[in-house]
Amino acid sequence: MDEEVSVLYQASSGGIRRDQIEVALSREFNRKIHSFHEPGIDVLWQEKLKENPRLFNGSKFRLHSIQEKKSKNVYIELGVTGYKDFLGTNWSKNAKEMLRLGEEEHGNKQAYMSDALGVGAFLQTKDGFVVFIRRSQHVGEAQGLWDIPGGHPEPEELVGKVNNPADICINDLNPALVVNEIFDSTLREIRDEVNVPLSSLSEPIFLGVSLNHTSAFRPSADFLVRCSLSSQEVKHLYDSGGVEAEESTSIKFVLIQDVKKLPESELWHEMAPSGKGCIVVYNQASL
Fold it and tell me: In which band, very low, low, confident or very high, does the pLDDT at 51 lie, cut at 50, 70 and 90?
């Protein structure tokens, strides 16, 4: 497997439907605070804002753990975090030290990490192609690399706009609606990044969770989504521009039968870790 990615959780045969997922929410699942490293989060955030004033501290869900029960349902423990904390921990120059301290002080190397849960879509067109987009220079990470459509589920979609993700009362979040937000955010990201209508997209199937080693093992939930449009129709819509057109610069289509060979291809070396992780999860899935 590629050194940039690994698989935290692989769904059982056929993937997992949204009604097979149970979520538990608690402040206990938020990241731990380390007094020495905390000031560095604000420093890094200000540096990133100077580089890219478009960044904002949106709320995110924090993945604490995931496991499959005997019933083949999936149980996920989630806290709340923010994009600022994500950049200040998972992307900190001190991330390795924070991982070491987490293991040493809490028996969990991820204890001090934001670990904002991402979502990614293995998007398959009607004529058997998989969709990739090249990330622009305006995004917060993996600039210029080929990636799958994706982003983050947002707690604020459920509770409304907040000035600081820390202001969100986790008890106000309905677990069933959180599951819906995770699945629905996957579809919204495809709509906004690729500019295809939601009506053309199938219900997402949860395939697993991949980890991005370049950002201190940040997790991403990977989904299979089928599109009722052909690759040419998708390209036409993408070229027309969409809500998040500035987040990518071009689109590429790979035949579904060539996906197994991607890790040995030239394209692999130009792919974002999140895209690699989704491909690895898909290739290991029994579909």
Answer: confident
- Phi and psi, residue 54, nearest 5°: -75, -15
13, exposed or middle or buried, with CB in 10 Å at 0-12, 13-18, 19+? exposed
Which carries the bigger pLDDT value, residue 246 or residue 31?
31
C-alpha R_g of the chain: 18
SS3 205: strand
Kind of pairing between the strands at 248-255 and 150-151: unpaired
Strands 118-124 and 150-151, by their bridges, are antiparallel
Pairwise CA distance, residues 152 & 104, whole Å: 30
As a whole number, mean pLDDT of residues 216-223 equals 98
Stretch (H or E) spanning 10: strand 5-10
**Using CA atoms in the order 133, 205, 65, 1, what is the torsion angle rounded to 10 degrees?**
-50
